[in-house]
Automatic annotation (TrEMBL):
Keywords: Cell wall, Cell wall biogenesis/degradation, Glycoprotein, Hydroxylation, Leucine-rich repeat, Membrane, Repeat, Secreted, Signal. GO terms for cellular component: membrane. This is Cell wall hydroxyproline-rich glycoprotein. It comes from Chenopodium quinoa (Quinoa). Residues 1-29 form the signal peptide.
């Protein structure tokens, strides 16, 4: 049976891309505002990203300078410096590559005060707080066509580069190798192609790497998972190598690889990421094999999505140890057998989708999950009969469901990036197929 061309896939892909493309990437404005809020607290150290993207904050907060991130301030202090002159050379060279800038995003990129350019953010240099340098560039959603010239190597202090949703193409220049402070790199939704840029493997500060929605192809380098990344988005490219066993080394909390053509077996080493992994989306990447028992070790995972693959076997009982799980999607695979009760008993599980498999039995606990899709499996006649009897006995007007919790706040500043579909309103009671028989 061919699962891959069902309309549900098209809708899912469309919905996914819509969610991703329509949501704004975290803006530097928000980040700088959160920086200003906390700039009085110089001692705070950041062990993880906060909702507003503490990445920039973390970088800036380690400075000895007492000036907060404030464009006006930096402007006043900036006249002269060699670094800003270099930045001027770099940015003007870059602007020359712009074939089109339909919204005039860079129309104020004139004159020598680069700190006043739209999307360019200055801050005291980490190695010398008396020197102002270009620390961040945010051209998200500018739809600029252009390329990345080698002259950008005159921006070695970049901590943050956001170029999402533009039309940049061409080579990834080697200038990145000079960006020792770069820890947020977002090239998503551009026209880059070719092999994975190995220059990214040598960025010692990188924590957030997003190259989704490009045309990168070939091997996902095993060294990528040795980096200390907190979030990695590779989805919607043309990568074609199996996930390497080094995946176990990754400290990432968010891993999205969906919609590539990787093939290969389910990467059982992923279970070793239990200490950090919170959201993993391996949808539609051609995975074969079974889910290993060790998968139960992912006890921090809130989102686990392996839908639209070729996985088979039964769902391991051990998944009942994934106590943080809220969204579980194993739909459109070849799983068979019985759904373990332990899964449906998971305390936070809100949405369990296992449509289009060969599941033969679902325990009654599974019927209580608010958002559940069990369509197109082997006949669940027994569980449906049980439900009918249940109705008769209790004359229940609707399937009893636990009260719905308020949706959790986004866990990360980049949570909107993760293709977790938006929540639907609760379905109208009672669901027709479990309706009580006519009296
Ligand atoms: C994030 O930003 C919003 C508004 O910009 C603010 O209300 C909130 O307190 C910030 N959160 C943190 C953790 O800085
Ligand atoms: C300063 O940082 C410390 C450590 O992170 C934190 O406990 C404290 O609440 C912060 N104070 C302010 C005023 O933000
Ligand atoms: C702050 O800078 C010092 C020295 O440059 C470095 O050792 C330390 O790891 C940095 N801390 C953070 C949180 O980046
Ligand atoms: C930025 O700095 C200028 C000049 O020092 C000051 O007038 C302004 O209030 C500052 N803005 C913020 C948001 O701190
Ligand atoms: C539940 O998950 C499925 C698959 O990921 C998704 O299509 C559906 O919209 C989700 N439902 C809710 C209410 O989030």
């Amino acid at each position: 049976m061919n699962y891959y061309f069902k309309p549900t896939l098209i809708i899912a892909l469309w919905a996914t891309s819509f969610v991703i493309l329509s949501l704004p990437t975290p803006s530097l404005q928000q980040q700088s505002s959160s920086f200003e809020q906390s700039s009085s607290n110089r001692t705070s150290s950041f062990s993880s990203f906060d909702q507003n993207g503490s990445s920039f904050e973390r970088w800036s907060s380690n400075q000895s300078s007492s000036s907060s991130f404030n464009q006006t301030t930096t402007f006043q202090r900036s006249s002269g410096g060699v670094r800003l002159q270099n930045a001027l050379t770099a940015l003007q060279a870059w602007k020359k590559t712009f074939i089109s800038d339909p919204f005039g995003f860079t129309s104020n990129w004139v004159g020598s005060n680069v700190c006043s350019y739209q999307g360019v953010f200055c801050a005291p240099a980490p190695d010398n707080a008396n020197v102002i340098t270009v620390a961040g560039i945010d051209l998200n959603h500018a739809t600029i066509s252009g390329s990345l010239p080698d002259k950008l190597d005159l921006l070695p202090d970049l901590a943050l580069l956001h170029l999402s949703s533009n039309k940049f193409s061409g080579n990834i220049p080697s200038f990145f190798s000079r960006c020792k402070l770069l820890f947020e790199l977002d090239l998503s939704n551009n026209l880059f192609r070719g092999p994975f840029p190995s220059v990214f493997l040598n960025l010692p500060s990188l924590k957030f790497l997003d190259i989704r929605y490009n045309q990168f192809e070939g091997v996902i380098p095993p060294q990528l998972f040795n980096l200390k990344l907190d979030a990695l988005f590779l989805n919607n490219n043309k990568f074609s190598s199996p996930l390497p066993s080094t995946i176990r080394n990754s400290p990432a909390s968010v891993l999205v690889v969906a919609n590539n053509n990787l093939k290969g077996c389910f990467p059982s080493e992923i279970a070793k990421m239990g200490g950090t992994l919170e959201e993993v989306i391996l949808m539609n990447i051609g995975l074969k094999g079974c889910l290993p028992t060790s998968i139960g070790g992912l006890n921090k995972a809130t989102v686990f999505d392996v839908s639209f693959n070729d996985l088979t076997g039964t769902l391991p009982e051990s998944m009942g140890r994934m106590q943080s799980l809220e969204q579980l999607n194993v739909a459109n695979n070849k799983f068979y057998g019985e759904i373990p009760t332990s899964i449906c008993n998971l305390p936070k599980l809100e949405n369990f989708t296992y449509a289009n498999n060969y599941i033969t039995k679902e325990p009654i606990q599974c019927l209580m999950i608010m958002d559940k899709n069990d369509e197109n499996n082997c006949h669940f006649w027994l569980s449906r009969l049980v439900t009918k009897i249940f109705y008769r006995v209790y004359n229940a007007p609707q399937v009893p469901v636990p009260p719905r919790r308020a949706p959790p706040p986004p866990s990360k500043n980049y949570a909107p990036y993760v293709p977790v579909p938006p929540r639907r309103p609760p379905p109208p009671p009672p669901a027709p197929k479990y309706a009580p028989p006519h009296v």
